[in-house]
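Many introductory courses stop at the sequence. We go one step further.
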Amino acid sequence: MLVKRLSHLVLHPFLLAAVSVLSARVQVKLEVLPEEVVAPLILMEAWALFVFALFCIFLRNPLKAGIASSFVVGLSLCFDQFRLYLNLGSQILFHTQVEDIITFVLFFLILVGLLSLLFRTPKAREGEEVKPVDFGRMNIAFNIMCTILLLMNLVPLMVSDSEQSKVQAHFIDLFSGPCKNFSPPAATTAKTVEKPDVYYIILDAYASPYTLKNQGNFDDHEFLDFLKQHGFYVVPKAASNYDRTPFSMASSLNMDYISAIPKEMGDNFQADNIYYRLMQNSAVACIFKKLGYKFINVSSGAFATDDIPSADMNIKTDFGSHFTTAMMMLTPMTGLEKYLHVMRDSYCDRRIAPGKCLDKVLSIAGPKFVLIHSDLSHPPAIFDKDGKRKDLPRELLNDHSTDFNAYVEQIKYCNSEVQKWIEKIDSRGTKPVIIIQADHGTYYPMKDDNAYYNEVMRILNAYRFPGDASPSYYPTITPVNTFRVLFNDYFGARLPLLKDQSWCSPVRVRPYSWSDVTPRLVFPGADEQPGASGEHSKPLEQ
């Protein structure tokens, strides 16, 4: 009786859909957070349900429909490889690429051919009786096989995530010192009695004006002049503390250098998840909450800042994340993307999310700390200078792009959008604190180490601290001191400033082999560049 019931329980297409997502995360389990699998998992299960329902209608047999669905679902994530090899063969034989729609049709024709062979009824020889295929037993076998595959991926992930969560908790506790030691001061001890809203805008991989000029022959003065006219102090010798987003943002949001992690874990231990959790459970957000602020995160669609559990509100414009798009690009959807642009538009919408979300952000009563991490400035270039969208490239976050001119065109569009963001934020009356900062520069091919360090470590960094007669930012301030200065200026925190240093690894395959490259960074004419008020603001004693 139990065997009979199990023989009619069709689970394997849905188990296989889960396996496809989990197996993808196994490959990047230390770079992709566990919660990021939810959206692609829902999409893959929906795809499995659609395929199963379709085959049920045509085959009129749930068991046969289940077997057929598993073939389609299981091979769905092979489409990109199929396209790759088909184009490789076409290039060798005909010196041309195969149109995506032809690849799409060929893929499904092959699937139909395989299914027809599977379900073909063999011809009976004279005097022989053809036994019908026992799809019930086949269904049980498929259920068992897919359950085993699921467990083979799920169990290691659960073990890894459990171990990682302990390591993450350890470092979160280690870097929470500024929050633990911070006591909200009495209003009379702070320079500003009224708590201003604070907007922290990270423009990912926004190149330094020097880099834009040297490599792209683009003078960024119009955007910088706009910032100065709106009360910003543009740091003349702006440099990042680290050369990658997880390192840089974990450092700035915890107001500390993160060398303790590779020192404890080893130079070869690569786990971005540690830094992502430090970004999500930062000392900065903790202090703002102690001060009575709401923590608002505008979703970037990228890893740690897509959805922050500790935030009071995550504002999203899109269902998935960059990992979702990367998963979908492996499926037959890629064959239709050139014509439908579903994934491209979803990805682009995440990049311009701040503009769409600001009305909702502004409607939230303050005081509030708003984190906006935007990929709008990040390679690859998917916008032109007017905001027209380009086809989505195969590598979504290709740091090693070679077309710097296309990057410059996207920066022009980024500038126009950021100006709109600032004008909208300012349109509500009292001007809030706004910090506009790149986490690192670009990674375009450079001829030597010094050129590379200057490209990747020099950044855009601009501050506007309204209502304070003598703001304490200074010409060489780096992101690690950003919030130390802010908390000192507005809340009398008396946090000591750290030495401003830029740590970079010359070879990205060993990202923790950092050296202090601060002396190798060059800022031609920076000493003559005025700040927002026409003069440099005074530096603090370090």
